[in-house]
Design brief:
Length: 286
Protein backbone atom coordinates (compact mmCIF):
# COMPACT_ATOMS: atom_id res chain seq x y z
CA UNK A 1 0.00 0.00 0.00
CA UNK A 2 2.82 2.38 0.91
CA UNK A 3 4.59 1.52 -2.32
CA UNK A 4 1.53 2.47 -4.36
CA UNK A 5 1.12 5.69 -2.39
CA UNK A 6 4.76 6.63 -3.04
CA UNK A 7 4.35 5.84 -6.72
CA UNK A 8 1.30 8.06 -6.94
CA UNK A 9 3.15 10.91 -5.20
CA UNK A 10 6.05 10.54 -7.63
CA UNK A 11 3.64 10.69 -10.57
CA UNK A 12 1.89 13.73 -9.11
CA UNK A 13 5.25 15.46 -8.56
CA UNK A 14 6.34 14.61 -12.09
CA UNK A 15 3.10 16.06 -13.43
CA UNK A 16 3.68 19.29 -11.51
CA UNK A 17 7.27 19.53 -12.78
CA UNK A 18 6.04 19.12 -16.36
CA UNK A 19 3.50 21.92 -15.86
CA UNK A 20 5.97 24.37 -14.27
CA UNK A 21 7.72 25.48 -17.55
CA UNK A 22 4.44 26.33 -19.29
CA UNK A 23 3.19 28.04 -16.13
CA UNK A 24 6.32 30.22 -15.94
CA UNK A 25 6.02 31.12 -19.63
CA UNK A 26 2.38 32.12 -19.07
CA UNK A 27 3.37 34.29 -16.10
CA UNK A 28 6.17 36.03 -18.00
CA UNK A 29 4.34 36.46 -21.32
CA UNK A 30 0.75 37.05 -20.14
CA UNK A 31 0.36 37.76 -16.44
CA UNK A 32 3.32 40.10 -15.95
CA UNK A 33 2.48 42.37 -18.93
CA UNK A 34 -1.13 42.64 -17.72
CA UNK A 35 -0.07 43.54 -14.18
CA UNK A 36 2.50 46.02 -15.49
CA UNK A 37 -0.08 47.66 -17.79
CA UNK A 38 -2.58 48.00 -14.94
CA UNK A 39 0.12 49.56 -12.76
CA UNK A 40 1.16 52.04 -15.47
CA UNK A 41 -2.45 52.95 -16.22
CA UNK A 42 -3.01 53.90 -12.57
CA UNK A 43 0.15 55.97 -12.11
CA UNK A 44 1.14 59.47 -13.13
CA UNK A 45 4.15 59.54 -15.43
CA UNK A 46 7.28 58.05 -13.84
CA UNK A 47 6.38 59.24 -10.36
CA UNK A 48 4.47 56.14 -9.33
CA UNK A 49 1.73 58.33 -7.81
CA UNK A 50 -1.72 56.72 -7.97
CA UNK A 51 -4.21 58.46 -10.26
CA UNK A 52 -7.34 57.85 -12.31
CA UNK A 53 -6.24 60.63 -14.65
CA UNK A 54 -5.14 58.34 -17.49
CA UNK A 55 -8.59 56.79 -17.75
CA UNK A 56 -10.30 60.16 -17.31
CA UNK A 57 -8.18 61.61 -20.11
CA UNK A 58 -8.98 58.60 -22.29
CA UNK A 59 -12.74 58.93 -21.99
CA UNK A 60 -12.73 62.74 -21.97
CA UNK A 61 -10.88 62.95 -25.30
CA UNK A 62 -13.41 63.28 -28.17
CA UNK A 63 -10.96 61.61 -30.58
CA UNK A 64 -10.57 58.63 -28.23
CA UNK A 65 -14.35 58.33 -27.86
CA UNK A 66 -14.70 58.37 -31.64
CA UNK A 67 -12.05 55.65 -31.89
CA UNK A 68 -13.93 53.49 -29.37
CA UNK A 69 -17.26 53.98 -31.14
CA UNK A 70 -15.71 53.30 -34.55
CA UNK A 71 -14.00 50.14 -33.28
CA UNK A 72 -17.18 48.76 -31.71
CA UNK A 73 -19.12 49.58 -34.89
CA UNK A 74 -16.62 47.80 -37.16
CA UNK A 75 -16.23 44.83 -34.84
CA UNK A 76 -19.98 44.51 -34.26
CA UNK A 77 -20.68 44.52 -38.00
CA UNK A 78 -17.88 42.02 -38.55
CA UNK A 79 -19.33 39.67 -35.93
CA UNK A 80 -22.87 39.87 -37.36
CA UNK A 81 -21.84 39.35 -40.98
CA UNK A 82 -19.24 36.69 -40.18
CA UNK A 83 -21.73 34.68 -38.13
CA UNK A 84 -24.46 34.97 -40.75
CA UNK A 85 -22.20 33.93 -43.63
CA UNK A 86 -20.42 31.25 -41.60
CA UNK A 87 -23.71 29.69 -40.46
CA UNK A 88 -25.11 29.65 -43.99
CA UNK A 89 -21.88 28.17 -45.33
CA UNK A 90 -21.69 25.54 -42.58
CA UNK A 91 -25.35 24.60 -42.99
CA UNK A 92 -24.92 24.21 -46.75
CA UNK A 93 -21.73 22.14 -46.46
CA UNK A 94 -23.24 19.91 -43.76
CA UNK A 95 -26.69 19.14 -45.13
CA UNK A 96 -26.35 19.56 -48.89
CA UNK A 97 -25.49 16.39 -50.87
CA UNK A 98 -24.21 18.40 -53.87
CA UNK A 99 -20.68 18.24 -55.24
CA UNK A 100 -20.32 21.97 -54.70
CA UNK A 101 -20.89 21.52 -50.97
CA UNK A 102 -18.32 18.73 -50.85
CA UNK A 103 -15.82 20.89 -52.74
CA UNK A 104 -16.42 23.86 -50.42
CA UNK A 105 -15.86 21.61 -47.40
CA UNK A 106 -12.37 20.91 -48.72
CA UNK A 107 -11.29 24.44 -49.61
CA UNK A 108 -13.11 26.86 -47.29
CA UNK A 109 -10.31 26.82 -44.71
CA UNK A 110 -7.63 27.97 -47.16
CA UNK A 111 -7.78 31.65 -46.05
CA UNK A 112 -6.75 30.55 -42.54
CA UNK A 113 -3.40 29.32 -43.87
CA UNK A 114 -2.50 32.55 -45.68
CA UNK A 115 -0.39 34.98 -43.60
CA UNK A 116 -2.52 37.93 -42.55
CA UNK A 117 -0.36 40.71 -43.98
CA UNK A 118 -0.04 38.85 -47.29
CA UNK A 119 -3.81 38.46 -47.56
CA UNK A 120 -4.42 42.12 -46.67
CA UNK A 121 -1.98 43.37 -49.30
CA UNK A 122 -3.50 41.02 -51.88
CA UNK A 123 -7.02 42.24 -51.12
CA UNK A 124 -5.86 45.87 -51.24
CA UNK A 125 -4.37 45.21 -54.69
CA UNK A 126 -7.77 43.92 -55.84
CA UNK A 127 -10.19 46.25 -54.02
CA UNK A 128 -8.58 49.67 -54.24
CA UNK A 129 -9.96 52.12 -56.81
CA UNK A 130 -6.99 51.54 -59.16
CA UNK A 131 -6.68 47.85 -58.35
CA UNK A 132 -7.13 44.68 -60.35
CA UNK A 133 -10.94 44.81 -60.20
CA UNK A 134 -11.00 48.33 -61.64
CA UNK A 135 -8.55 47.42 -64.40
CA UNK A 136 -10.61 44.34 -65.27
CA UNK A 137 -13.88 46.22 -65.75
CA UNK A 138 -11.97 48.83 -67.78
CA UNK A 139 -11.58 46.13 -70.43
CA UNK A 140 -15.36 46.34 -70.93
CA UNK A 141 -15.46 50.14 -71.00
CA UNK A 142 -16.63 50.58 -67.39
CA UNK A 143 -15.05 52.50 -64.54
CA UNK A 144 -15.75 50.76 -61.24
CA UNK A 145 -14.31 52.37 -58.12
CA UNK A 146 -15.60 50.65 -54.98
CA UNK A 147 -14.19 53.30 -52.63
CA UNK A 148 -13.31 50.74 -49.95
CA UNK A 149 -9.88 52.01 -49.01
CA UNK A 150 -9.58 53.98 -45.76
CA UNK A 151 -13.16 53.19 -44.74
CA UNK A 152 -14.78 51.03 -42.10
CA UNK A 153 -16.58 49.10 -44.83
CA UNK A 154 -13.28 48.07 -46.39
CA UNK A 155 -11.95 46.89 -43.03
CA UNK A 156 -15.09 44.81 -42.44
CA UNK A 157 -14.86 43.16 -45.87
CA UNK A 158 -11.22 42.22 -45.35
CA UNK A 159 -12.02 40.95 -41.83
CA UNK A 160 -14.60 38.60 -43.31
CA UNK A 161 -11.85 36.91 -45.34
CA UNK A 162 -10.28 35.67 -42.11
CA UNK A 163 -13.27 35.30 -39.81
CA UNK A 164 -15.87 33.52 -41.93
CA UNK A 165 -13.78 30.33 -42.35
CA UNK A 166 -12.84 30.41 -38.65
CA UNK A 167 -16.45 30.75 -37.50
CA UNK A 168 -17.63 28.18 -40.06
CA UNK A 169 -15.15 25.68 -38.67
CA UNK A 170 -16.62 26.04 -35.15
CA UNK A 171 -20.25 26.04 -36.24
CA UNK A 172 -19.76 23.26 -38.79
CA UNK A 173 -18.34 20.92 -36.14
CA UNK A 174 -21.58 21.24 -34.15
CA UNK A 175 -23.87 20.93 -37.16
CA UNK A 176 -22.00 17.84 -38.27
CA UNK A 177 -22.47 16.21 -34.86
CA UNK A 178 -26.29 16.50 -34.88
CA UNK A 179 -27.66 12.96 -35.21
CA UNK A 180 -29.45 12.44 -38.50
CA UNK A 181 -31.84 10.14 -36.68
CA UNK A 182 -33.04 13.13 -34.68
CA UNK A 183 -33.84 15.06 -37.86
CA UNK A 184 -35.57 12.06 -39.39
CA UNK A 185 -37.66 11.59 -36.25
CA UNK A 186 -38.78 15.21 -36.45
CA UNK A 187 -39.79 14.75 -40.08
CA UNK A 188 -41.63 11.52 -39.25
CA UNK A 189 -43.95 13.39 -36.88
CA UNK A 190 -44.80 15.89 -39.61
CA UNK A 191 -42.33 18.72 -39.03
CA UNK A 192 -41.42 20.68 -42.13
CA UNK A 193 -37.90 21.79 -43.04
CA UNK A 194 -38.26 25.21 -41.46
CA UNK A 195 -39.73 23.71 -38.29
CA UNK A 196 -36.90 21.18 -38.07
CA UNK A 197 -34.39 23.99 -38.41
CA UNK A 198 -36.15 26.27 -35.91
CA UNK A 199 -36.92 23.63 -33.28
CA UNK A 200 -34.00 21.21 -33.65
CA UNK A 201 -31.02 22.39 -35.71
CA UNK A 202 -30.73 25.99 -34.55
CA UNK A 203 -31.18 25.33 -30.80
CA UNK A 204 -28.49 22.64 -30.94
CA UNK A 205 -26.08 24.92 -32.82
CA UNK A 206 -26.82 28.20 -31.03
CA UNK A 207 -24.14 27.53 -28.41
CA UNK A 208 -21.38 27.09 -31.00
CA UNK A 209 -22.60 30.20 -32.83
CA UNK A 210 -22.25 32.18 -29.60
CA UNK A 211 -18.74 30.81 -29.06
CA UNK A 212 -17.77 31.64 -32.66
CA UNK A 213 -19.12 35.18 -32.26
CA UNK A 214 -17.18 35.70 -29.03
CA UNK A 215 -13.93 34.55 -30.63
CA UNK A 216 -14.51 36.75 -33.68
CA UNK A 217 -15.11 39.69 -31.34
CA UNK A 218 -11.94 39.06 -29.35
CA UNK A 219 -9.87 38.55 -32.51
CA UNK A 220 -10.98 41.85 -34.03
CA UNK A 221 -11.43 44.30 -31.15
CA UNK A 222 -7.66 44.88 -30.87
CA UNK A 223 -6.76 44.11 -34.48
CA UNK A 224 -3.86 46.07 -35.91
CA UNK A 225 -2.74 44.90 -39.36
CA UNK A 226 -5.89 45.48 -41.43
CA UNK A 227 -6.92 48.85 -39.90
CA UNK A 228 -3.32 50.08 -40.02
CA UNK A 229 -3.05 49.35 -43.75
CA UNK A 230 -6.63 50.15 -44.77
CA UNK A 231 -7.93 52.50 -42.08
CA UNK A 232 -8.33 56.27 -42.31
CA UNK A 233 -6.34 58.91 -40.44
CA UNK A 234 -9.34 59.47 -38.19
CA UNK A 235 -11.07 57.73 -36.55
CA UNK A 236 -8.75 54.83 -35.77
CA UNK A 237 -9.47 51.38 -34.54
CA UNK A 238 -8.18 50.90 -31.01
CA UNK A 239 -5.25 48.69 -32.01
CA UNK A 240 -3.88 51.48 -34.19
CA UNK A 241 -4.68 54.12 -31.56
CA UNK A 242 -2.74 52.09 -29.00
CA UNK A 243 0.24 51.86 -31.34
CA UNK A 244 0.21 55.62 -31.91
CA UNK A 245 -0.01 56.40 -28.21
CA UNK A 246 2.93 54.16 -27.42
CA UNK A 247 5.22 54.42 -30.47
CA UNK A 248 4.40 57.86 -31.90
CA UNK A 249 3.43 60.03 -28.93
CA UNK A 250 5.41 57.99 -26.35
CA UNK A 251 2.54 58.22 -23.88
CA UNK A 252 3.19 55.02 -21.95
CA UNK A 253 0.63 55.69 -19.24
CA UNK A 254 -2.08 56.60 -21.73
CA UNK A 255 -1.22 53.56 -23.84
CA UNK A 256 -1.43 51.39 -20.72
CA UNK A 257 -4.89 52.80 -19.91
CA UNK A 258 -6.06 52.04 -23.44
CA UNK A 259 -4.59 48.53 -23.31
CA UNK A 260 -6.37 47.88 -20.00
CA UNK A 261 -9.62 49.07 -21.59
CA UNK A 262 -9.06 46.69 -24.51
CA UNK A 263 -8.29 43.88 -22.09
CA UNK A 264 -11.53 44.67 -20.24
CA UNK A 265 -13.53 44.44 -23.48
CA UNK A 266 -11.97 41.07 -24.29
CA UNK A 267 -12.50 39.94 -20.70
CA UNK A 268 -16.23 40.60 -20.98
CA UNK A 269 -16.39 38.33 -24.03
CA UNK A 270 -14.18 35.79 -22.28
CA UNK A 271 -16.41 35.91 -19.21
CA UNK A 272 -19.49 35.18 -21.31
CA UNK A 273 -17.66 32.23 -22.87
CA UNK A 274 -16.57 30.82 -19.49
CA UNK A 275 -20.08 31.29 -18.08
CA UNK A 276 -21.60 29.38 -20.99
CA UNK A 277 -19.07 26.57 -20.53
CA UNK A 278 -19.81 26.38 -16.79
CA UNK A 279 -23.55 26.21 -17.48
CA UNK A 280 -22.94 23.30 -19.84
CA UNK A 281 -20.80 21.50 -17.26
CA UNK A 282 -23.49 21.95 -14.59
CA UNK A 283 -26.12 20.62 -17.02
CA UNK A 284 -24.00 17.56 -17.77
CA UNK A 285 -23.42 17.06 -14.04
CA UNK A 286 -27.15 16.70 -13.47
Amino acid sequence: MELRLRERRKQALLGLLLVVPSFLVTVVVVVFPIVDSVFLSLTEGDTGVFTWGNFQALFADPAARNDIAFTLQVVGLTVILALGLAYALSFYMTFSPSRTAAWLAKVYQIPLFIPGIVAVYALIAVLRDTGALNRFVHLFGADFKPGLMYTGTGIVLVNLWFNVPFAAMIIGATLGSIPRSLLEAARDVGAGRFTVFRRVVFPLSAKSSLVAGLFVFMNNVSEFTTPFLMGSNSPHMLGVALYQKFAVFHDQNGAAALSVFLFALSSVAGGVYIHSMMKEDRWRGH
